[in-house]
């Protein structure tokens, strides 16, 4: 059973989401501001967080920044704001997905399932054999889900890990933004450019000495991205 934390200052929304998630067999924990969400995370094992952005005391943006210091669980933002800039901001500070209000509860549940599937593939439940992928001093152990660069451990979110793994497993092959999105999110790539670009930038910031002059994760202008075979 997976534990889902739902955080929104509108209690009716929290209660409605709880009903749909419980119907799928999830255990639901509830909070009504960012501070409350952090307190739940300290006390309970949570596998995924659904969080509103605009909340009192501590909003979703600032709460996520604090949460990402210690937790790598998937985070899905809820927001009445639908502008691309707002979505990019959410992804920039560590969210894995973004759902605009008003939303279809069944779509939200589908996104929860998708994020949990990737999260469990990343975690200890993965039943893969010992697979190590290497290029230069970048090493991925896909059994332990560890990423090392120059002997130092690199901490990635589930989405970042899966994007990097896809590219490292296929060194030298160029993947378009659409191909990356469809491989990782497992849905049609509609308006995926900003989403993929944000995650690519985060990966570069974590694995490259100089992200502006990357050694590993290269852009092929007008085509897509690839991991250089070194």
Topology readout:
Elements: E1 3-7, H1 11-23, E2 27-31, H2 34-43, E3 48-52, H3 60-67, E4 75-79, H4 84-92, E5 97-100, H5 105-122, E6 132-135, E7 138-141, E8 146-149, E9 152-154, H6 158-169, H7 177-185, H8 193-207, E10 217-220, E11 224-227
Parallel strand pairs: 1-2, 1-3, 3-4, 4-5
Antiparallel strand pairs: 6-7, 7-8, 8-9, 10-11
Portion in helices: 40-55%
Report the strand count. 11
**Largest sheet data:** 5 strands, parallel
Which of globular, elongated, flat, extended, rod-shaped describes the shape?
Answer: globular
CATH class of the largest domain: Alpha Beta
Secondary structural class: alpha/beta
CATH topology of the largest domain: Rossmann fold
Give the count of helical stretches. Answer: 8
Q: Calculate Rg over CA atoms.
A: 18 Å
Stretches where pLDDT is under 50 for at least 5 consecutive residues are 124-129
Number of domains: 2
Strand order of the largest sheet: 2-1-3-4-5
Please name the fourth-level CATH homologous superfamily of the largest domain.
Response regulator
Query: Distance between termini?
Result: 42 Å
Name the helix and strand elements from N-terminus to C-terminus, one letter apiece: EHEHEHEHEHEEEEHHHEE
CATH architecture group name of the largest domain: 3-Layer(aba) Sandwich
Strand content: 15-25%
What characteristics describe this protein?
230 residues; alpha/beta; Rossmann fold; Arc Repressor Mutant, subunit A; 2 domains; five-stranded parallel sheet; four-stranded antiparallel sheet; 8 helices; 20% strand
């Amino acid at each position: 059973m997976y534990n889902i934390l739902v955080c929104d200052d509108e209690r009716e929304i929290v209660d409605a989401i709880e009903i749909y998630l419980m119907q799928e067999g999830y255990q639901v924990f509830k909070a009504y501001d960012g501070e409350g969400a952090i307190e739940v995370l300290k006390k309970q094992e949570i596998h995924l967080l659904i969080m509103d952005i605009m909340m009192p005391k501590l909003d979703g943006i600032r709460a996520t920044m604090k949460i990402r210091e210690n937790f790598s669980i998937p985070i899905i933002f809820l927001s009445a704001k639908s502008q691309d800039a707002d979505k990019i901001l959410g992804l920039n500070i560590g969210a894995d997905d973004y759902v605009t209000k008003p939303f279809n509860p069944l779509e939200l549940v589908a996104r929860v399932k998708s994020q949990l599937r990737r999260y469990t593939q990343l975690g200890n439940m993965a039943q893969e054999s010992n697979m190590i992928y290497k290029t230069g001093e970048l090493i991925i152990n896909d059994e332990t889900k560890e990423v090392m660069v120059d002997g130092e451990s690199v901490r990635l979110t589930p989405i970042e890990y899966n994007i990097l793994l896809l590219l490292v497993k296929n060194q030298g092959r160029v993947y378009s933004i659409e191909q990356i999105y469809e491989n990782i999110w497992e849905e049609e790539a509609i308006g995926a450019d900003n989403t993929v670009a944000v995650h690519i930038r985060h990966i570069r910031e974590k694995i490259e000495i100089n992200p502006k002059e990357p050694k590993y994760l290269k852009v092929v202008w007008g085509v897509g991205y690839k991991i250089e075979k070194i």
